[in-house]
Amino acid sequence: MMDWKQLLYVPLSHDFVLGSLREQAASTGVTVLAYHELAQDDADVEAWTVVRKSDFLRQMDYLSRHYDIVTLDRAIARLEAPTGASRPLAVITFDDGDRGNADVLLPIVEELRIPVTVYIATRQVVDRNPYWFDQVINALQVDTVVDVDLGKYGLGRYQINRARGSKNWLEIERLLEALKALDPAARAQAVEAMLAAVPPMEQRRKNGQIEPMRVADVKALATCSWMTIGSHSHCHNLLTQLSASAAEESVKNSKSLLEQWTGRTIEHFAYPNGTYDNMTVGVVRKTGFRSAVTFESRLWRRVDSLYCIPRVGIGRYDSFEKFKLNLVGGLRGIWRSAA
Q1: Distance of alpha carbon 295 from alpha carbon 270, whole angstroms
Q2: Do 200 and 268 share a structural domain?
Q3: Overall domain count for the chain
Q4: Contact by Cβ (8 Å): 224, 115
Q5: Same domain flag for 18 and 104
Q6: Mean pLDDT by 10 residues, the chain (339 residues)
């Protein structure tokens, strides 16, 4: 059965509906989009976080026709001093620092000349080993059903690959969200146990693996004038699960490494998982960042703190109609405008 939201996306995504909402956004807010990874269309990967190249190009074409795509710094300046412009602003961001950001995204940015901010989590670049969540996703890229039993950790059972596409991702996402709730030490044990029980490496789909960037890739991004490099912490743990000193160490380490690699001052931060509290905001501010972004799925307004900037996540299984609606804040944005 089709989700009731899907039934609404087509009629609500027509220009006669979105046009007036874009006009409102031009004067009251900024759309900040959050991606993770891009891959070639033939990449056989079951992950919402990995967007197809062709879908991204279609999205950028639509965005450039209806929005001014700008840097974070320009968006901040516009909100601080509104100009009465007729076209709304959009900011494009990517999290984590996976290999497709260099192999697929960078050539697109250089060709289309669109500004993009890439928030890089640095430990995986140093270690050349994906973070736990990508290790889990990678391990599940097989053509057989995988029964994951984490009852020992109070997380229950999960059956992956009983379907393909968005339905399969819902079960993978359910597993990832359960693992996120564990403290880092317990999660490491649970992930290790899970990885030991899934099919071996040789059974995985070869073109369905998520890999981190190398230091050379980060440096290549930094040579592009259309790229802004931001920090995504070093450890990529939920900073709210850490002590203030551990969170500060992770944030500082990432900033320091990125500045060494790029020769740039790193001024913008993305909270891992978009999760933050007063402690983490204080750490980021103290470390010298100018802004920090979250995953609160709505438009960025002038009243929002620069350390709690909301973003709308864009993923592999989102229809084009949903993408267009997300630009104006999704279904909730339409309800608020109609109220």
Answers
A1: 9
A2: no
A3: 2
A4: no
A5: yes
A6: 53 59 69 97 96 98 95 93 80 98 98 98 97 97 94 93 95 96 94 92 89 98 98 97 97 98 98 97 98 95 96 95 86 48
* pLDDT at site 82: 74
CATH for 114 = 3.20.20.370
The answer on 324 and 243 residing in a single domain is yes
Please give the span between the terminal C-alpha atoms of the chain, in angstroms, as a whole number. Answer: 29
Give the dihedral of Cα atoms 285, 286, 288, 290; nearest 10 deg.
Answer: 10
Q: What is the reported pTM?
A: 0.93
Domain match, 124 and 161 both: no
Q: Could you tell me whether strands 68-69 and 50-52 are parallel, antiparallel, or unpaired per DSSP bridges?
A: unpaired
Segments forming the whole domain that contains residue 140? 132-208
Residue 13, SS3 per DSSP: coil
- CB 50, CB 107: distance < 8 Å: no
The identity of residue 215, as a single letter, is V
The dihedral through the CA atoms of 291, 293, 299, 301 has a sign that is: negative
Residue 177 in tokens: 């969200």
Query: Hunting for tokens 């260099």 — which residue is that?
Result: 102
For strands 157-160 and 89-96, give the pairing.
Answer: unpaired
